[in-house]
C-alpha cells in the first residue's frame, strides 16, 4: 500500500486503545471511591460466526478496561420466553450495570421485544425506546456505540466538537442502529444534516455536497471517488465480507483506494469505526454504572 493512503487515514484502532485505557483509569478510580466494579452482561444467541467474533472482542476489551464481564450463550433454538427470562434476571442483578444482546437474533426471536425488556438504565447499546427518545429530545442518554464512536472520531479529528458546527454532514443509510442516531448526534453538534437512502434521487450529487460523508448502508464499496467533494472527511461504517482473488476480504461501504485520493481524512475497514464501537461499549458500561450508583440521569460522553 502506498504512503499516500496512510497520510489521511484516521486510525480507529489507536483511538479505541486510548479510549479503553482511559475507561480503565476511571474504572480503577470508581473501584477505589465507590467499591464498585462495573459489570457487563453480553448475551449471544446461536452460532453466527461474525457475532461470535464481535462478542469475543467485547469480552476481551472489557477485561482490558477492568470491567466484570459475563458472557451468556443461548442455543439457536432457544425460545423468546427463555431469552426474556434471562433478561429479567440480569435486570434484577445489582452486580450487572450493562446488558447487551448481540444482534441480529436468529429468527423467529423478536429483537424489538427483547430490547424493550432491557432496563433502560442498563441498556448500554442505547437501543431502548426510552434512550432513543432522550437522544432525539436532546437529553443525555446512553447512546448507540457505533454512532458514538463516529462522533468521537470526528471530534478528535477536528480537535473538538465546536469545529463541527455549520458543517454539512451527509449520512448514507437510515438504520435504527447507526444512521438515525448518528444524524441526531451530528445535529446536536450543530452540523447541517442530510440523510440519504435507497430511495433518494441523485444520491451522488447530495453526497458530493458533504463536508463530512458517513457511509452506513452495508453495500460493499458503494461510495466512489466521484461521490466525494475534494477535502471532505469520510467515515466508513460498513463491514462487508467479499471474495477477492479467491480469498475472503473485509471492505467498507467506501472504495478506500479511490476515495482516499480526494478525501482529506478517511477511516479504513478494518481498523476504523469497528474498534471504536467496542471501545464505546466500555465507556457506556462505565457511564451506566455511574448513573446507577448516583441514581442520576445519563452522563454526556
Ligand atoms: N447488540 C449489538 N449488536 C450489533 C452491534 C451493536 O452495536 N450492538 N453492531 C454490529 C456488530 N458489532 C458490534 O456488535 C461490531 C462489528 C464490527 C466490529 C469490528 O471491530 N470490526 C473489525 C473487523 C472485525 C473482523 O475482522 O471481522 C473492524 O472494523 O476493524 C465491532 C463491532 C451488529 N450487531
Description:
By secondary structure, the protein is an alpha/beta fold. The chain has two domains: 85 residues, Leucine Dehydrogenase, chain A, domain 1 (Rossmann fold, 3-Layer(aba) Sandwich); 130 residues, NAD(P)-binding Rossmann-like Domain (Rossmann fold, 3-Layer(aba) Sandwich), CATH 3.40.50. It contains eleven helices and ten strands. The strands form three sheets. Strands 5-4-6-7-10 form a five-stranded parallel sheet. A three-stranded parallel sheet has the order 2-1-3, sandwiched between helices. Helix 2 runs parallel beside helix 11, helix 7 packs across helix 8 and helix 7 packs across helix 11. The longest helix is centred in the N-terminal third of the chain and has 23 residues. The protein is globular, with a radius of gyration of 19 Å. The two termini are 35 Å apart. The relative contact order is 0.16. Bound molecules: the ligand Nc1nc2c(c(=O)[nH]1)N[C@@H](CN(C=O)c1ccc(C(=O)N[C@@H](CCC(=O)O)C(=O)O)cc1)CN2. Ligand LMY7XDAE binds next to helix 3, strand 3, helix 7 and helix 11.
Amino acid at each position: 500500500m502506498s504512503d499516500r493512503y496512510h497520510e489521511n487515514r484516521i486510525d480507529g484502532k489507536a483511538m479505541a486503545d486510548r479510549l479503553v485505557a482511559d475507561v480503565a483509569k476511571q474504572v480503577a478510580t470508581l473501584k477505589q471511591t465507590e467499591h464498585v466494579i462495573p459489570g457487563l452482561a453480553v448475551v449471544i444467541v446461536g452460532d453466527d460466526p461474525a457475532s461470535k467474533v464481535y462478542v469475543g472482542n467485547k469480552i476481551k476489551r472489557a477485561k482490558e478496561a477492568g470491567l466484570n464481564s459475563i458472557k451468556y450463550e443461548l442455543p439457536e433454538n432457544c425460545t423468546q420466553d427463555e431469552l426474556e427470562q434471562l433478561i429479567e434476571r440480569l435486570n434484577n442483578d445489582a452486580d450487572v450495570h450493562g446488558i447487551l444482546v448481540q444482534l441480529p437474533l436468529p429468527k423467529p426471536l423478536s429483537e424489538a421485544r427483547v430490547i424493550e425488556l432491557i432496563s433502560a438504565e442498563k441498556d448500554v447499546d442505547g437501543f431502548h425506546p426510552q434512550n432513543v427518545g432522550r437522544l432525539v429530545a436532546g437529553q443525555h442518554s446512553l447512546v448507540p456505540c457505533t454512532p458514538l464512536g463516529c462522533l468521537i472520531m470526528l471530534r478528535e479529528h477536528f480537535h473538538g466538537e465546536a469545529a463541527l458546527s455549520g458543517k454539512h454532514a451527509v449520512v448514507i443509510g437510515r438504520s435504527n442502529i447507526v444512521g438515525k442516531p448518528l444524524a441526531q448526534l451530528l445535529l446536536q453538534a450543530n452540523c447541517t444534516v442530510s440523510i440519504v437512502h435507497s430511495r433518494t434521487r441523485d444520491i451522488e450529487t447530495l453526497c458530493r455536497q458533504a463536508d463530512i460523508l458517513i457511509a452506513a448502508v452495508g453495500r460493499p464499496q458503494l461510495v466512489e471517488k466521484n461521490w466525494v467533494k475534494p477535502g471532505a472527511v469520510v467515515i466508513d461504517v460498513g463491514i462487508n465480507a467479499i471474495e477477492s482473488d479467491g480469498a475472503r476480504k473485509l471492505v467498507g461501504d467506501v472504495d478506500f483506494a479511490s476515495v482516499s485520493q480526494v478525501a482529506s481524512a478517511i477511516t479504513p475497514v478494518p481498523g476504523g469505526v469497528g474498534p471504536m464501537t467496542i471501545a464505546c461499549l466500555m465507556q457506556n458500561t462505565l457511564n451506566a454504572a455511574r448513573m446507577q450508583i448516583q441514581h442520576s440521569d445519563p452522563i454526556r460522553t
